[in-house]
Structures are given as structure tokens and as C-alpha cells.
Amino acid sequence: MHIGTIHDVTNLALSNSPGPGPVMRTVIVVTVVGVALMAWFLLRGYGNDK
Questions:
Q1: Which parts pass through the membrane (predicted)?
Q2: Which of 23, 5, 6 is nearest to 14 (CA)?
Q3: How does 5-30 read in b/e, with b if 16+ C-beta sit within 10 Å?
Q4: How many CA atoms lie within 13 A of 41 on its CB side?
Q5: How far is CA 36 from CA 42, 43, 45, in A?
Q6: Which of 4, 7, 24, 36 is the right S-S partner for 20, CB 3.0 to 4.6 Å?
Q7: For 3-50, how does the pLDDT look when each residue is reduced to its tens digit (9 = 90+)?
Q8: 3-state secondary structure the chain
Q9: What does the pLDDT read at residue 9?
Q10: Is the distance from CB of 13 to CB of 5 less than 8 angstroms?
Q11: Using CA atoms, how far apart are residues 36 and 28, in angstroms rounded to an integer?
């Protein structure tokens, strides 16, 4: 990976507004949705044991 690319990605993750940058916000949202879907997938068959 070129050092300029790493610098560009780092700049995307930072913003002048308070709070996390747009990349970090996206990572957080995708993580929360992924955890919710994984919990649903794992728990949907929990009561089906006979």
C-alpha cells in the first residue's frame, strides 16, 4: 500500500467536527448491525431444540 493512500484514508477518518469522522462512524454502524444480525442468527434456533 502506498504511503499516500494511507495518508488519504487517515484524512478521511478525521474531520473538523467533534466526534468520530465519517469512516469511523461507518465502521461503528456496520459493527452494530453485524452484531445484531449475528445474535439473531445464533438465537433464532435456540428454542427449536426438542
A1: 23-43
A2: 23
A3: eeeeeeeeeeeeeeeebeeeeeeeee
A4: 6
A5: 10, 10, 15
A6: 24
A7: 677 666 666 655 566 666 788 888 999 999 999 999 999 998 877 665
A8: CCHHHHHHHHHHHCCCCCCCCHHHHHHHHHHHHHHHHHHHHHHCCHHHCC
A9: 61
A10: no
A11: 12
Residues composing the chain: 50
Residue reference for cell 473538523: 16
16: its cell numbers: 473538523
